[in-house]
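Worked Example 4.2. Consider the chain below.
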Amino acid sequence: MGGLFSRQKKPVSRVTEQDKAVLKLKQTRDKLKQYQKKIMLNQDKERVLAKQCLNQGRKDKALRLLKKKKFQDSLLAKTDAQLDNLDKLVQDLEFAQVEIQVVEGLKGGNEALDALHQIMSLDDVEKIMGDTEDAIAYQNEIDDLLAGGVGVEQPDEDELLAELGELLGAEVEEELPDVPVSDMDLPVAPTHELEKTKSREESRTLAAS
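Applying the procedure from the previous section yields the following structure tokens:
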């Protein structure tokens, strides 16, 4: 059992040297920030102490505390500059890692394309296309033989348009209603009104004479 387990390979770590360098830089940055925080806390305490010394008339002690504060201010300025440099270096390393991944991706893509080109060259593609055209032509000949040697003729476009016009004309004739041309039922003009009018005019003529 012990020999079996001793033969197992250790998992390969995915942490690169660049990752370790970035981690170390970030740890140094965090330590500088903690150092700054410590200095600012001491400055607050010494500022309060300096006020107390002035109130007590201990001017020399207050001046020494203020000089110490000025020195600590310079330390804070230096640590700020160091933090800026660390942040820039971290960003440069991280961006360099991204660039490496991009280059590796391009390299892998080019290798894959080269492998495909080796498998199938331009001459192979041209040969395959030519063989495909020959196979299609051969199949068309077989289809013609099976159909009795008579190929399927393509219909003439003018004939199709003429036939379509005939179909449309027939549909229009079927849709028109039948109109009677004889024995039309016309309304009868009234005759009794005319007779009454004529009798009245004759009576007026007799009366006038």
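The mean pLDDT is 78. Residues 108 and 114 are 10 Å apart (CA to CA). Compare this with Example 4.1 before moving on.
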